[in-house]
Write a structure and sequence with these properties.
The complex is a heterotrimer of chains A (about 110), B (about 650) and C (about 210).
Chain A lengths: L5 H8 L4 H22 L5 H23 L10 H24 L8
Chain B lengths: L1 H10 L7 H23 L3 H9 L4 H30 L9 H36 L7 H20 L27 H29 L12 H32 L13 H35 L6 H14 L15 H29 L8 H24 L1 H7 L3 H31 L1 E2 L2 H27 L16 H30 L2 E2 L35 H7 L16 E4 L4 H17 L3 H19 L5 E4 L1 H10 L4
Antiparallel strand pairs in B: 1-2, 3-4
Helix pairs in contact in B: 4-5, 4-6, 4-16, 5-6, 5-7, 5-9, 5-14, 6-7, 6-18, 7-8, 7-18, 8-9, 8-10, 9-11, 9-14, 10-11, 11-12, 12-14, 12-15, 14-15, 15-16, 18-19
Chain C lengths: L17 H4 L1 H31 L9 H4 L2 H26 L3 H31 L8 H34 L3 H34 L1
Classes of the chains: A mainly alpha (about 110), B mainly alpha (about 650), C mainly alpha (about 210).
């Protein structure tokens, strides 16, 4: 609880749009890669979906670090721990639900 | 005209259903008239509005939660006694089958969502800010909203009994039984909307207390110096914020099925009822840990105080709380092993379910080791804690039996399961909440509760508990299924059921003793003038009872775990008292009518949705929007409490 | 002194980003991050439902039939860009430039409106083909997941408008700065959710 975390100050000193521009470019490039991979049918469906999900995961990182200043906080950045836990649980619910509900139906992956 | 009136009375007021409804109607009308008359006679309307309905003070909100929880405990308890009366003998027809279904549904829903949840929120609210040295929670206004959402959600749910009919598909509300085609009455809508509204409030409470604990601790109170009740609150709230969204979605999707005709959980157009069950338990299992973790926190405080020892294995206590919080998220499918998801799924969830037992076991041993060679004082909080340990050991062991997937095919939905989870929820949660209530009662109200009557309550309730639930394990093995309306004589279940019913009535008498104890103690008040009636250890006991509304005149600096105990040991309690020259003006949150009005708007909107009266729903939604926008544009949320006033208060309390 | 952090100085701070200078506002930012973690699970459950019911089409329209590539490409571009302009508004706020805050925010809202417009158009076209939410469990799940995101975006637009009104009235104070920061956090979060919607719903739907 000892005052301000260093990152708040260091990032706030440089008020240039550079980070935002890099972030925007990165998100556009990642999206474009996804679209091209998907629409050209360049690979098998299974690996393709995995790869698309990984690319989407990279977009989370882009938004969090380039736009949302996720590491900034007053005091220790506890919210990062909670967000990480939330992400784990989100993926757990989605993927394990598919796994559980795959019994004897036409759900397939 | 009279024809229309009769139609209304039969459809909505259910007057054709017999004397139970008539009695309830009369009681409700009489109680309402009584309350209104009393408030008017004693000129208390303004007091009610100023001091309670518009308050944002965490201590008052906590007291309101406590009151609501005790009322709901009564309602749920009456439901339980009606159920047990119906089951006391074979071939009984004390209740009609429809009423029986409604009553087991409301019993379960009320006990979990409208008794256990507000009870633990009561303790969070009353205790946590005082334990960590804060003046209020992080978001006092949001805290008031949480309470009113809970309150109006509970109101909607309870209203169903006398207006339109109660839900009757069990507290788990499984489709396709709960789909419109099988269950067309408003009862199921009541369930969906009432639980949804109070669930939103719970999520907000979770966020609020995490922020409070992480951000509002007094200087020097490092995480590893926090009292264990605060730790357990943190763990519980982490589970709340990640589990309640699943309930919100499950209920919302079922509501969509019923209101606009989508096909999530129906039997046609590719709907899959099991998906509801899956989502429901994504919330449902963590929910069990949401309610039991704070009880663990209470036990830790109580055991340390009444053995006059530092808690054994503090860091392992913290670690096990956090482990339970995380692992509890990966066990949900054990509620539907019999769905047939396959050996791999069932094995994973069986192993995960058994793993939760490990950190829980660690905690039990830590409590025992703390008591070992301590000088135990058997006060009321300590008695309920001691009562909890054998309960939890038996309940835990039967839990491991249920977690074994192949075994579960045998016990699933039998009375064995019923006995198991009542042992966890009564032995674990109710014991814990009552221990907490007795422990912090002087801090809330400034007087202690009568010990003698409390001991009667404890022994009658606990003996009643074993008489009630031990036979149910046997009944489960004999093949009796849950939610069974009645059974023929030749099943041979009669005598065990009769014994069980006797136990249930004993528990009811135990509860009445608690009520008597409270009323008696109100008359013959044993005032707590010290602020520390138990010779306790943590920061809240350094304050007067009840604490002034700003809590701490000067925020203390924390140098140790068990800070108050250490201060007493080393004779420097004055370090924790305010000095006049340190007292400054304090910004306090303003009272607001808006949380109450917001809750009311939710009530109106929910009511409109339940009966498909969309004009009403629209009015309610407009009210919600108006409240939110008004808050967004609000300028001043705080007022200044001048230092002189604080000094005067502290002087009158003899603290400066 | 206030009810918020005892560790913070009495009169706030003179350095660091504006929205963090008042400890009161800093706590609200933490609270909002925690809310986002909760909201993440809300979408997680909707995604779970969609993934499970994805193939339950009951002989009705499938994902591959329904999804229109140019349509969702445009929606994606609008939302990604609006996330960028929202970020630039935060930057302008930190530089204390109220005029550019307003400009970037209005641009963000226009892009958000475009997104909503395109989505409504898409839904109307789908319904026109008989693909209503009542047709199959797949479509129920699709409309609910994408519609919930759309509702979030619409609420975000109203919220942005309210924030802009306050900034216009009161200027950039610690409080209005925090509100702007938080509404943009929300907006970036919705962008992330959309990335998953176009990946898991649209792109995967088109290839499978």
């Amino acid at each position: 609880m000892s005052g301000m975390n260093g990152t708040v100050q260091s990032r706030s000193e440089r008020h240039s749009p550079k980070l935002y521009i890099i972030g925007y470019a990165a998100s556009l490039v990642l999206t474009a890669i996804s679209f091209v991979l998907a629409l050209t049918h360049s690979m098998h469906v299974g690996p393709l979906v995995v790869l698309l999900t990984v690319l989407a995961g990279l977009q989370i990182i882009v938004q969090l670090f380039f736009f949302m200043h996720v590491t900034e906080s007053e005091g220790p950045p506890y919210h990062v721990v909670l967000l990480t836990l939330g992400l784990i649980f989100t993926f757990a619910v989605a993927l394990m639900s598919v796994w559980i509900m795959a019994f004897g139906t036409n759900v397939s992956y | 005209m009279s024809e229309a009136l009769k139609h209304f009375a039969d459809t909505y007021l259910m007057w054709n259903e017999g004397y139970l409804i008539w009695i309830s109607d009369i009681l409700i009308v009489l109680a309402s008239i009584g309350i209104v008359a009393a408030l008017t006679y004693f000129k208390k309307w303004k007091w009610l509005w100023r001091n309670w309905l518009t308050t944002v003070d965490h201590k008052k909100i906590g007291i309101m939660y406590l009151l609501a929880a005790l009322l709901m405990f009564f309602r749920g308890g009456v439901d339980a006694l009606l159920l047990r009366t119906q089951l006391a003998q074979p071939g009984e027809h004390f209740l009609s089958a429809e009423h029986y279904d409604q009553i087991f549904t409301t019993h379960g829903t009320i006990m979990i969502l409208f008794m256990a949840m507000p009870f633990l929120f009561a303790l969070f609210n009353i205790v946590v800010p005082l334990q960590i040295g804060a003046r209020d929670v992080a978001f006092p206004y949001l805290n008031a909203i949480s309470f009113w959402l809970f309150f109006f959600g509970a109101m909607i749910f309870n209203l169903s009994f006398v207006f339109g009919g109660s839900p009757d598909a069990g507290w788990t509300s499984y489709p396709p039984l709960t789909e419109l085609g099988f269950d067309s009455g408003p009862g199921e809508n009541y369930y969906l909307i009432g639980v949804q509204i109070s669930g939103i409030g719970s999520m907000a409470t979770g966020i609020n207390f995490i922020a409070t604990i992480l951000k509002l601790r007094a200087p020097g109170m490092k995480l590893m110096r926090m009292p264990l009740f605060t730790w357990s609150t943190l763990a519980s709230c982490i589970v709340i914020i990640f589990a309640f969204p699943a309930l919100a979605i499950a209920l919302a999707l079922l509501t969509l099925d019923r209101i606009i005709g989508t096909d999530f959980f129906t039997m046609y157009h590719g709907g899959d009822p099991m998906m509801f069950i899956n989502l429901f338990w994504v919330w449902g299992h963590p929910e069990v840990y949401i309610v039991v973790l704070p009880a663990f926190g209470v036990y830790s405080e109580v055991v340390a105080t009444f053995t006059r020892k530092r808690i054994f294995g503090y860091s392992s206590m913290v670690a096990s709380l956090m482990l339970i919080a995380v692992i509890s998220y990966f066990v949900w499918a054990h509620h539907f092993f019999t769905m047939g998801a396959g050996a791999d799924v069932n094995t994973f969830f069986a192993v995960a379910s058994m793993m939760v037992g490990i950190p829980t076991g660690v905690k039990v041993f830590n409590w025992l080791f703390t008591m070992f060679r301590g000088r135990i004082r058997t006060t009321l909080p300590m008695l309920w804690t001691l009562g909890f340990i054998p309960n939890f050991a038996i309940g835990g062991a039967t839990g491991i039996m249920l977690a074994a997937a192949p075994g579960d095919y045998q016990y699933h939905n039998s009375y064995f399961l019923i006995a198991h989870f009542h042992q966890m929820l009564i032995g674990g949660v109710v014991n814990g909440m009552l221990a907490g209530m007795y422990y912090w009662w002087p801090k809330m109200f400034g007087f202690t509760l009568n010990e003698r009557l409390g001991k009667w309550a404890f022994w009658i309730f606990n003996i009643g508990f074993y008489i009630c639930f031990m036979p149910q394990y046997a009944l489960g093995f004999e093949g009796m299924q849950r939610r069974m309306y009645t059974y023929p004589t030749d099943m041979g279940w009669g005598s065990l059921n009769f014994v069980s019913t006797i136990g249930a009535y004993l528990m009811g008498i135990g509860f009445l003793f608690i009520v008597w104890q409270v009323l008696y103690s109100l008359r013959h008040m044993e005032k707590d003038t010290t602020g520390d009636p138990w010779d306790a250890r943590t920061l809240e006991w350094s304050l007067p009872s009840p604490a002034p509304h700003y809590n701490f005149a000067v925020i203390p600096t924390i140098s140790d775990r068990d800070v108050w105990w250490e201060a007493k040991e080393h004779h420097h309690t004055s370090d924790l008292l305010p000095k006049v020259d340190q007292i400054e003006d304090v910004h306090m949150p303003k009272n607001s009518a808006r949380p109450f009005l917001l809750g009311l708007s939710f009530f109106v909107a929910g009511f409109g949705v339940i009966f498909n009266w969309y004009v009403l729903a629209f009015v309610g939604l407009a009210g919600i929007a108006a409240c939110l926008i008004a808050r967004a544009l609000e300028d001043e949320e705080e007022y200044v409490l001048p230092a002189e006033e604080i000094v005067a208060t502290e002087q009158s309390l003899g603290r400066v | 002194m206030s009810i918020t952090p005892a560790s913070a100085s009495h009169h706030g701070r003179s350095h660091g980003p504006l929205e963090y200078r008042d400890p009161h506002q800093a706590v609200k930012i933490t609270g909002f991050w925690i809310f986002l973690a909760t909201d993440m699970l809300l979408f997680g459950c909707l995604f779970a439902t969609y993934l499970v019911l994805r193939t339950h089409t009951d002989g009705g329209p499938t994902a591959a039939h329904l999804f229109d590539v140019p349509g969702f490409t445009a929606e994606t571009f609008a939302l990604l860009t609006s996330s960028f302009t929202g970020g630039l508004a935060t930057l302008a706020m930190r530089n204390g430039n109220r005029k550019w805050v307003m400009i970037w925010m209005v641009l963000t809202m226009l892009l958000g409106l475009t997104f909503i417009g395109l989505e409504v158009q898409e839904f109307v076209a789908d319904v026109g083909q008989g693909a209503t939410a009542h047709r199959s469990a797949f479509l129920s799940a699709f409309y609910t997941l994408v519609g919930t995101h759309g509702t979030h975006v619409s609420i975000g637009l109203i919220w942005m408008l309210l924030t802009l009104i306050q900034i216009a009235r009161r200027g950039l104070t610690a409080k209005t700065a925090r509100k702007l920061f938080v509404v943009n956090l929300y907006w970036h979060f919705l962008d992330v959710v959309w990335v998953f919607i176009f990946t898991i719903v649209y792109l995967s739907g088109v290839v499978m």
